[in-house]
Amino acid sequence: MSTKKSIDYKLYLVTDRNVLGNRDLIQSVEEAIQGGATVVQLREKNCSSLDFYNLAIKLKKVTSKYGVPLIINDRLDIALAVKADGLHIGQEDLPLTVVKTIVGDDMIIGVSANTLEEALLAEKQGADYVGIGAVYPTDTKLDADYLTLDDLRSIRKAISIPIVGIGGINEKNAVEVMGTNIEGVAIVSAILGKQDVKQAAQELLRKINN
Amino acid sequence: MSTKKSIDYKLYLVTDRNVLGNRDLIQSVEEAIQGGATVVQLREKNCSSLDFYNLAIKLKKVTSKYGVPLIINDRLDIALAVKADGLHIGQEDLPLTVVKTIVGDDMIIGVSANTLEEALLAEKQGADYVGIGAVYPTDTKLDADYLTLDDLRSIRKAISIPIVGIGGINEKNAVEVMGTNIEGVAIVSAILGKQDVKQAAQELLRKINN
Ligand code: NI
Predict the structure, then answer these.
(1) Cβ count near B176 (within 10 Å)
(2) Quick check: A187 and A28 in contact, CB under 8 A?
(3) Is residue B2 part of a domain?
(4) B51: which chain A residues are within 8 Å (Cβ-Cβ)?
(5) Per-residue pLDDT of chain A (210 residues; tens, 9 = 90+)
(6) How far is CA A5 from CA A88, A108, A205, B106, B145, in A?
(7) SS3 content of chain B, % helix, strand, coil (to 5)
(8) B3 touches A: beta carbon within 8 Å
(9) How far is B45 from chain A (nearest CA, A)?
(10) B8 C-alpha vs ligand 1 centroid, how far in Å?
(11) Residue B115 in 3-state DSSP?
(12) Cβ neighbours of residue B162 under 8 Å, at least 6 residues apart?
């Protein structure tokens, strides 16, 4: 039996310690949820498994309190350890087919796809949603290849599972991204990098909903 | 039902890419097994999950060919993904109690312990073996606290599960370490750092067996 939740992908918050500066990650995510974030992905790199686990446990308490799904980036062991709602894997993480043999259908699995082919394969292999991007160049990946809105529309027509746009999405371009008929936008610095995190989430949600 | 193998911990090889230089990890481990390594722990840091997985899959083929158990360091997700025989966790990795809730008794779980208290707790929480050390200072941890042979003897008397000595053990001191009545020695550079890996393993095993 699947224990998956039905997820609202609309305002998909991805954590990034680097944009938070000295501010507390857990408290900032709680403010983002209060502002309207509909799903939270915890993304940590270069920390010990114990630190990742302890952080995920704390974050799970917050997301559970608000009934918002928690998705862990990359690390299936952490996702299993904290009984997260989902796992998000990139093309450099464990293969989707391998993950599925371990968790079956009991966890939401999202896959990052940068091309139509990767998106089609992810759907075929049983991904619950795909993160498609980068839609716009980001500060950290200035020279990365990115997709056009037309690319997003083409992928939207080609697959049936939910699509979240990823990469450089902010209050200025979120509306046109959602205009491609995808289910949500993944936001990092346009929420967590703002002075008032809750207000930033509120304004983004308001624009998307209009 | 437990699918655990009964493990011979005597000559416990731990991989380290840094001591291999340009040599191939998989081939070097195969030579070490041919020389007498009785168990192999794959330890990788700072590589993508996909790279870790692909390496572990390749290594599993070699260890399976020789009937030698493969233990994965730190990463339970990788251990599950490649159906490794075991997982070795340190004090900065996932807590043993959490790991046990996920894998039950179907995987060998080893725990690094640096004190008698940590060793007692690991045994109480269901560890299958403990790695105790560092027994001698290593090149990479010159100023780390290390245990004396008397410390090893005290821990040996206090717990019942197998003990593997870890840290700075080589052909010069392996015999005195085994003299504390522990089950095995964990070796890194004294095998993988030698020009003739197979011969290094053979000589270590011969000394230990004498
Ligand atoms: Ni189910």
Answers:
(1) 12
(2) no
(3) no
(4) 92
(5) 455 668 999 999 999 999 998 999 999 999 999 999 999 999 998 899 999 999 999 999 999 999 999 999 999 999 999 999 999 999 999 999 999 999 999 899 999 999 999 999 999 999 999 999 888 877 655 555 789 999 999 999 999 999 999 999 999 999 999 999 999 999 999 999 999 999 999 999 999 998
(6) 15, 8, 21, 29, 48
(7) 40, 20, 40
(8) no
(9) 9
(10) 38
(11) coil
(12) B7, B9, B128, B129, B130, B182, B183, B184
Q: Is residue A140 part of a domain?
A: yes
CATH of the domain at A57: 3.20.20.70
Check B43, B58, B83, B100 and give the catalytic one.
B43
State phi, psi for A183 to the nearest 5 degrees.
-85, -20
Structural domain containing residue A205: 11-209
Task: For residue A91, tell me if it sits in a domain.
Answer: yes
CB proximity under 8 Å: B 57-96 to A = 74-78, 80-81, 89, 91-95
Number of domains in chain B: 1
Candidates B177, B181, B192; CA nearest to B156 is: B181
Kindly compute the dihedral angle of the four CA atoms of residues B190, B196, B197, B199, in this order, to the nearest 10 degrees. Answer: -90
> Is residue B185 one of the residues assigned to a domain?
yes
* Residue whose tokens read 């193998």: B5
The H or E element spanning position B11 is strand B11-14
B145 at A interface, C-beta within 8 A: no
Tokens describing residue B147: 């245990």
pLDDT, tens digit, 9 for 90 and up, residues B164-209: 999 999 999 999 999 999 999 999 999 999 999 999 999 999 999 9
